[in-house]
C-alpha cells in the first residue's frame, strides 16, 4: 500500500521517540477496518482536547486518502452504539481503556486493541498525530486489517524518574477529585503540579469532579474548600489510601501547589518516593516543605516590585510563595511602606503570624550624618525613595524584635533620587532559646545603563552607566559592612544574614568585597553542591528564569557561627507570576 508523505510533525516526532513494537497475540484474530472502500468504524476523540481532535481529523483524512472510506469523526460526548466499533483517540470516557490511560506518560503513546475497539492514547504536542500515523503504517496492514490484541505498538519517552510513588502506591493509581463548585481554582493549580510531575517523570494525573464526597473512590486525592480553616491555612488528612487537602483561600491553595512542586523537584531521580501524612499548617509552620534536616532557621529574600496597580493581581502569588516555604525571616525589596499593594501582603502575612520590622525610614545613613556639617542636603534623601523600602517580615510566634532601623544609602551621586536604594536591619531574639540573629534586607543601585531623573526636584541626572552603577554598589557595600561591623560589635558573635536584590552578579567587585569580608560568605558558596540552585533569579513576569547565567539576588551568611544546608531559587511556573524576581531562600544551621 503506497502511503502519502506524512506531515512535518511526524518526522520531527520520529527523531524524539524510540518505537517499541510489542508482540501481538496470534490468536487475537484480525479486525478489518475498511473493506471495499467502506468502514463500520467511527473515530471518537477526547472532548476538549485540541491534540486529540486534530489527530482524529488527521486519521480520518489519511484513511479516506488511502482507502476511499469516509469515517464519522465525533467527540466522546456521543454515546457508544451497539454494533458500531470505534477507534478512540486520546483519553476518552469509554472506560475500558482507563488502565492504559493511567500508565501512558507525557511524550509517549500506546496503540491497543480490546475486542473490536482500537485505542490510540498519547500525550504531548503532536504525539497523538504521530501515533495515528504509526497506526496506519505499522499496525494496519495493506489489506486494512489489524491483527493481535492488547498493546500493539508503544512509544516511550525518556525521563529523569522511572517510578513515582505517593505514600507507597504508584501515583497513577490515584484519582484527583476536584470540587465541582467553589471559589478556589483547584483545576489550575493541579495543572501546575502536573506540569512539574511531567517534567521529571512523564506521569500525568487522573482527575474527576465531585459534588458529593460519597462519589469519591479510593485511592484518591480529594481537594476541598474549607469553611473552618484560617485565611492562610491549609491541612492534609490521611485516611488509608485517601488524602484530603483542604484550604480556605486562593492564596493557601496556591501555597500548597507551590509546596508540592518543590517536593517533586527535590525528589527528582530514578525513583521518586513522595509522602504526604496528616498535618495542618499555615505560613510559618512548614508542613509541606520542612526545614532541611539539622537546620535552625530559614531566610528568604524577595523583590516583589509592588509599585503600581498593574501588580495588584500578582500579590496573592507573593503571599502564597511565602506561605509555601514558611521562612523565619523575609527580606523584601521594592515594597511600598503604605498603600493598597503593600497592605494586601502585610494583611496576609499578619494573619499568618508575621510581624514587620524596618517598614519606614526611621534613620539617616551614618555616613550621611558624618557629612552633616559640610553637606546641607544630607537629610534630604531621607524623605524620598517611596519604592525603595526593604522591610523584614519575621515569624512573631518564634521571634521578637530587640532593635530595628532603616535608611537610604548615602553616596557621592545621592541626588539621583530615582535610583535611591536602602537597607533595613533588625536584631531578633528567639522566644524559646534567647538566641539572637541579625537580619539585614537591602536593595542596591541598578545595573541598567539608561536612567533619567524626573524633574528639578530630583536634580535631573543625565543617566547612569555600568561604571557609575558599579561605583554606587561599591558604596552600598561599604554601608552594609559598616552596619554589620557596628551590630556585631554590639552583639558579639551574632548570627548574621544579609539578603537582597543586589543588582550584581557574584563576579562583580562589590560582591567580591562582601565575599572577602571577615565573616560573611555568599550562601551559594556555603551550600553543598547537591543542595544549591543554578541559574538566574531575575526574569520577565510570568516566565521562568534562565537556567544559565548568574543570580543578582543574594544571601550572605556569617560563616563563623553558621553553615548553609540549602540554597534555593524558586522559579516554578506558578511562583514567577508574583514578581519579576524569584524568591531565594537558605536553610541555616548554627555551628
How would you portray this structure in words?
- There is one protein chain.
- With 591 residues, the protein is α/β, with parallel strands linked by helices.
- It is built from twelve helices and 30 strands.
- The strands form six sheets. Strands 1-9-6-7-5-3-4 form a seven-stranded mixed β-sheet. A six-stranded mixed β-sheet has the order 13-12-14-16-15-18, covered by helices on one side. Strands 21-22-20-19-30-29 form a six-stranded mixed β-sheet.
- Helix 2 (50-67) packs parallel to helix 4 (127-139) and helix 6 (250-267) crosses helix 7.
- The protein is elongated and about 100 Å long.
- The termini are far apart.
Count of distinct strands: 30
In percent terms, what proportion of residues is strand? 25-35%
Q: Distance N terminus to C terminus? A: 75 Å
The helix content is 10-25%
Observed structural traits:
elongated; 591 residues; disordered N terminus; alpha/beta; seven-stranded mixed β-sheet; 12 helices; six-stranded mixed β-sheet
Can you summarize this structure?
The chain is an alpha/beta fold. It is 24% helix and 27% strand. Helix 1 (8-16) crosses helix 4 (127-139), helix 5 runs parallel beside helix 6 (250-267) and helix 10 runs parallel beside helix 11 (509-515).
What is the strand and helix layout of this fold?
Layout: H1 8-16, E1 18-21, E2 30-32, E3 42-45, H2 50-67, E4 72-75, E5 86-89, H3 98-103, E6 109-114, E7 117-122, H4 127-139, E8 145-147, E9 150-156, E10 163-166, E11 169-170, E12 175-179, H5 186-201, E13 206-210, E14 220-225, E15 234-239, E16 242-247, H6 250-267, E17 271-274, E18 279-281, E19 297-303, H7 315-325, E20 329-333, H8 340-351, E21 354-357, H9 366-370, E22 392-395, E23 399-408, E24 422-430, E25 436-443, H10 466-490, E26 495-501, H11 509-515, E27 520-522, H12 523-526, E28 553-558, E29 562-569, E30 584-590
Parallel strand pairs: 3-4, 3-5, 5-7, 10-17, 12-13, 12-14, 14-16, 19-20, 25-26
Antiparallel strand pairs: 1-9, 2-8, 6-7, 6-9, 10-11, 15-16, 15-18, 19-30, 20-22, 21-22, 23-24, 24-25, 26-28, 27-28, 29-30
